[in-house]
Amino acid sequence: MVKEFNTQTELSVRLEALWAVLSKDFIIVVPKVLPHIVKDVQLIEGDGGVGTILIFNFLSDVSPSYQREKITEFDESSHEIGLQVIEGGYLAQGLSYYKTTFQLSAIGEDKTLVNIKISYDHESDIEEKVKPTETSQSTLFYLRRLEIYLNSSA
Questions:
Q1: CA angle, corner 118, sides to 54 and 79, nearest 5?
Q2: Confidence band, pLDDT 50/70/90 cuts, at residue 108
Q3: At 44, which helix (H) or strand (E)?
Q4: Which of 28, 32, 98, 138 makes an SS bond possible with 90, Cβ 3.0 to 4.6 Å?
Q5: Cα(147)–Cα(132) distance, rounded to whole angstroms?
Q6: Bet v I/Major latex protein domain: which residues (predicted)?
Q7: How confident is the model over 22-57, as pLDDT tens digits?
């Protein structure tokens, strides 16, 4: 049964700038903001919209060595993007389903609220190896790194 974990964070960046790096420029930006984890991101299939498949290749000391993701939601008007892991990554660590959805909304001229929904399921009822509270910390870390990147690029 798919479970959900929700969290949110405020970032001191303009909505448009954050949306651009989350939805369009992440192939270039992710290795820059997570250089100690991600070697590169490759577009395998698609045009950046729903159905697009990406592969995140991690550095040699990160296990598993890659994560393949599919964009399952993409709504430019509501600034929402959903990425589902379809191979490697969290699926190699005991999860049978893992999806992260980001929904952005402006809360001022230079602030953005990011609502994060993590949907997940385990392969079995055996002790949970991957906990959504821990994976959400990774997601929040990534968003903070994007905030730093965008503010230093401005």
A1: 65
A2: confident
A3: strand 38-45
A4: 98
A5: 22
A6: 2-137
A7: 999 989 999 999 999 999 999 999 999 999 999 999
